[in-house]
Amino acid sequence: MPDEQPNPGPTVRIASARVGPSGKTLFIALQDVDGAATALRSIAAHPSIRVSGGAPIALSGPIWGTSSPYVLYPVAPKIAPGTALTMDAPSSWATTAAGPAPPESSRAVVVDGSPFVPSSSTAFP
Fold this sequence. Notes:
mainly beta; 10 strands
């Protein structure tokens, strides 16, 4: 019987998921398991969001680049600060330099009206 190798688990995780101050943009930053930003390589599927536990709203039209560790999605309707917002995404929805992104289920999204500033040298707040 061959030795089975343990599954090392996901190599990528979401560092931050937040709505921008306009309420019309979802920002998702990815990092490797050590906390370093990791560049996107491809997007195979798009996440969906749920406003206050409602029906899923499919996202589309991402803005990203292969040297960026984040992706921006336009959001409609506008999300007001303080709104309860969650995100779902299928397994391998995105692939980064560190590997595929794991699935997300009811992940809380920050909606506080504050700006986000991408940084390529550290994990995102």
